[in-house]
């Protein structure tokens, strides 16, 4: 079922905000979409009411998230175009099944499914190797995996390259905030950046923009090294699905791979 709050601002103002957020001029957006700058100006100032097709066309070029495209349509006086289902709804059963197959198939290496706000949806058994020793309050639902990673009572004390990993996660989250204009993500970013862990380290901040940032983790007396990838569902038409992502961790070296195979068979106490 789709539920969207009725916006208090007109659609033209909202479209203008998204254009400016994407650092585009009216001329630049006009060239991209084939819509005249005069018409764009009339839409943004409220002198012209855009059709739903025009709203969606502009939203597509501005890379507006699906939930916000529904908001734009409502502001323009139209019905939402994109559904929003709960993950437990029958309509999303194929998505759940596919995600579970990926998570299970990735073992013995850690993999987890998160929503748009980085809440844990599902995880395979190997993720328990990373969360062992974390405080109970961080493992109570809803579990936020970024908070769990960087909180002093979470994984942070066992991350060997905490300054680098912290800078990497904050860099990703900051880009997500800029792309979505999501208040919840903004609040999460402000919370996480207040945690200790190397925010004044210039080298760590520079490394956050590197092609690959490893996670170096201490577990059961062993040093493990991971590389991570993010997988999203292609061309989703549901607001919930568009926010889902699978975070998969791969061994960065043979030693880690061998250790993970051993640990999943007989995990030691920590």
UniProtKB/TrEMBL annotation:
A Pfam family this chain is assigned to: HTH_31
Gene3D superfamilies: 3.30.450.180, lambda repressor-like DNA-binding domains
CDD domains documented for this protein: HTH_XRE (cd00093)
Domain HTH cro/C1-type residues, every copy: 15-69
Single GO term (MF): DNA binding
The protein's name: Transcriptional regulator, contains XRE-family HTH domain
Phylogenetic placement of the source organism: Bacteria, Bacillati, Actinomycetota, Actinomycetes, Micromonosporales
């Amino acid at each position: 079922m789709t539920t969207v709050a009725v916006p208090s601002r007109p659609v033209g103002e909202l479209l203008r905000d998204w254009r400016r957020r994407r650092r585009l001029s009216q001329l630049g957006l006009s060239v991209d979409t084939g819509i005249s700058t005069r018409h764009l100006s009339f839409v943004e100032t409220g002198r012209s009411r855009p059709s739903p097709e025009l709203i969606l066309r502009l939203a597509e070029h501005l890379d507006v998230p699906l939930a916000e495209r529904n908001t734009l349509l409502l502001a323009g006086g139209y019905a939402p175009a994109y559904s929003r289902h709960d993950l437990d709804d029958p309509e999303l059963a194929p998505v759940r099944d596919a995600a579970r197959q990926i998570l299970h198939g990735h073992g013995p290496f850690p993999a987890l499914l998160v929503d748009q706000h980085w809440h844990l949806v599902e995880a395979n058994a190997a993720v328990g190797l990373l969360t062992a020793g974390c405080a109970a309050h961080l493992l109570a639902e809803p579990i936020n995996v970024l908070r769990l990673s960087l909180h002093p009572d979470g994984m942070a004390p066992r991350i060997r390259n905490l300054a680098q990993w912290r800078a990497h996660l904050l860099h990703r989250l900051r880009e997500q905030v800029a792309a979505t204009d999501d208040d919840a993500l903004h609040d999460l970013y402000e919370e996480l950046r207040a945690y200790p862990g190397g925010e004044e380290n210039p080298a760590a901040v520079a490394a956050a923009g590197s092609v690959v940032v490893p996670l170096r983790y201490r577990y059961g007396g062993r040093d493990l090294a991971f590389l991570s990838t993010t997988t999203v569902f292609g061309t989703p038409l549901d607001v919930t699905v568009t926010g889902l992502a699978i975070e998969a961790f791969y061994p960065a070296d043979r030693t880690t791979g061998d250790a993970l195979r051993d640990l999943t068979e007989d995990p030691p106490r920590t």
